[in-house]
Amino acid sequence: MKQLILAGLMVLAAATSSWAESYKSWNYVGCVQKRQYFTEYSYTNSAGKTSHQTVVYIPHDSTLKRWYYFYKGEHAWKTGEKPWGRVHTANHPEYNAKTMKWQYWKDGKWNDYKQPGFCPAPKDAAKPIMNIPPLPPK
Fold first, then answer.
1. Where are the domains of the chain?
2. What pLDDT is attached to residue 76?
3. Which one of 33, 87, 102, 135 is separated from 114 by 20 to 30 angstroms, measured CA to CA?
């Protein structure tokens, strides 16, 4: 019995340690007044491989600058595709460092998740998003 429990814990530890998420450094496009920042979000997908999405931050717009926008795929934001989700940035008036505030796009508008602090996962992800990147340097 002890061996069975120990083997189960080892499998669980191996599965847990193989999951990862990370963000690359911020890049930008556009002139200073209209600059859009973007970074690559990498995560372990449900098949155990690495997938990538793009996170966009638009500081020059008074409403948009309060959110990070998550796009499926690495270049989806350049094609005019709508982001699948957005999360408060540190400069949002309702930002809480302990609880992320996410919204999802549906029926032509942004909708709140019902559970406070709920963190979504990309469709192919093994786990929900656990961290967001810091604001880009000014």
1. 21-138
2. 76
3. 135
